[in-house]
Design a protein that fits this description.
β9, α7 and β10 form a beta-alpha-beta unit. The chain has nine helices and ten strands. It has one domain: TIM Barrel. The strands form two sheets. The protein has an eight-stranded parallel beta barrel with strand order 1-2-3-4-7-8-9-10, surrounded by six helices. By secondary structure, the protein is of the alpha/beta class. The longest helix has 14 residues.
C-alpha cells in the first residue's frame, strides 16, 4: 500500500442528507435524533459529523432548513451529547441567495463546512428513462464560492471542497494556488451522482494525480452496496473515509442499515482491512489542521 496509507484514517458520518423521507428511511431529523445518531457514529469510530438541517416544524415535510435557530438547536444538541466531535456543516444551496447558509455558519461556527466547488447539471434517470426529477443546475460560480470562503475564513472554518467531476477537482487546485482556499486544500470526491463522476475505484489513482501534494482527501460514495469497493480503495490509497445515511442505506453485505452507527462500524472495518488505524477526534483535529 505504500507510505501514504500509513497515517490514521479520519472517518466522517453524514447523518441525514437533504431530502430523504424519515417516514421511509431511518434518518434523524430532530435535535434529539441527530444527537443520538452522532453518538452512535462516534462510538463506532467517527470523528466528524456532516450536518444538514431539516425543517423542525411538524407537518412541514422535513425539507431542508436554513433557519439559523434550527441549525443552532441541532448543533448545540450534538455538541452537548458528544462535545469532542468535529462539526462539518452543509452550505449547498441552489441560486444566488446565500443569506440562509451564511446565517447558519455564523450561528453555529462549525470547525469545518462543505464548500461546493463548481457547478453541475444534477441529473438522474429512472429505469424507464424518464427524469427522476426535473433537470437541475446546481450552480456554484466562482463568485459564490468566494463569498462562502470569505465567511468561513472570518470564522476560522476550514472549507471542505466538494468535487462532483474532474474539472471541479482541477479548479480547486487553481483556487488553492490563487489563495482562495487553503493550500493544500481539503477535497471530497463526490462519486456516484449519475451526471458526475462514477463510483469506480479505478478512477482514484488518476484523480490523485490531479491533486496538490499534501491535499487532504476523502470519497463521498453515493449508491448502494457497490460503494464499498470504492471505500476500500480509498482506504488503501491513504484517503479519509466517509459514509452515513445521507450517502447510502446499504451495508457491504447488501443488507439495509437502520442507523449511522452500523455504517460507521463497517467503515472502521474497511480501514482496518487496509492496515489503517482510525483517528480519534483529537487526532483528527490535528490531521485536518482545525482550530482546537
Amino acid at each position: 500500500m505504500g507510505a501514504m496509507a500509513s497515517h490514521k484514517a479520519v472517518i466522517t458520518c453524514a447523518l441525514t442528507g437533504v431530502l430523504t423521507d424519515p417516514a421511509q428511511h431511518h434518518v434523524p431529523v430532530t435535535p434529539e435524533e441527530m444527537a443520538k445518531e452522532a453518538r452512535r457514529a462516534r462510538d463506532a469510530g467517527a470523528s466528524v459529523v456532516h450536518v444538514h438541517i431539516r425543517n423542525q416544524t411538524a407537518g412541514a415535510g422535513r425539507l431542508p432548513s436554513w433557519d439559523p435557530v434550527d441549525a443552532k438547536n441541532v448543533c448545540d444538541a450534538i455538541r452537548a451529547e458528544v462535545p469532542e466531535l468535529i462539526l462539518n456543516l452543509t452550505t449547498g444551496v441552489v441560486g444566488p441567495d446565500l443569506s440562509g447558509p451564511i446565517a447558519c455558519l455564523e450561528a453555529v461556527k462549525p470547525e469545518m463546512a462543505a464548500l461546493n466547488a463548481g457547478s453541475l447539471n444534477y441529473l438522474k434517470l429512472r429505469s424507464n428513462n424518464e427524469w427522476a426529477w426535473p433537470p437541475l443546475l446546481f450552480d456554484n460560480p466562482v463568485e459564490k464560492i468566494e463569498a462562502f470562503e470569505q465567511v468561513m475564513k472570518a470564522h476560522d472554518i476550514v472549507p471542505e471542497c466538494e468535487c462532483f467531476d474532474t474539472g471541479i477537482l482541477r479548479s480547486v487546485m487553481l483556487f488553492a494556488r490563487k489563495g482562495m482556499v487553503p493550500n493544500p486544500p481539503h477535497v471530497s470526491l463526490v462519486m456516484g451522482v449519475e451526471s458526475g463522476m462514477p463510483n469506480k475505484a479505478s478512477w482514484l489513482p488518476l484523480l490523485l494525480e490531479e491533486m496538490i501534494p499534501g491535499a487532504h482527501w476523502q470519497v463521498i460514495g453515493i449508491g448502494r452496496q457497490e460503494v464499498w469497493a470504492l471505500h476500500r480503495r480509498c482506504a488503501e490509497l491513504g484517503g479519509d473515509l466517509r459514509t452515513g445515511l445521507e450517502d447510502t442505506f446499504y451495508l457491504p453485505d447488501g443488507s439495509k442499515a437502520t442507523s449511522n452507527g452500523q455504517l460507521i462500524e463497517a467503515m472502521a472495518a474497511v480501514a482496518a482491512e487496509a492496515g489503517r488505524e482510525v483517528a480519534s477526534p483529537s487526532e483528527a483535529r490535528a490531521l485536518l489542521r482545525l482550530r482546537r
